[in-house]
Sequence to fold (92 residues):
Amino acid sequence: MSKESAAVAPSSGAGKSPDEVQSWLKEKVAKAVGIRADDVDVTHEFAELGLDSRQSVRLSGELEKFVGKTLSPTLLMDCPTIASLVEFVTRG
Fold:
């Protein structure tokens, strides 16, 4: 699946800035894997950070609510880092 087909509406991030989405994701990932948000490297893949597939699907659902648009449950497989995910959900 391409990045373009991974989300129904791949634009604007419901008005969330890239910094807002990145900070939110860092907090969520840190909480899920038991580390400090400051220790989350946005260029490392979610699996490298310790997120399993179930946690990834859950995070995708929470991100969908946060940005206010429909996202694929497997989006984190298409955008495997916080940096790539932020770019995808906030590009306009």
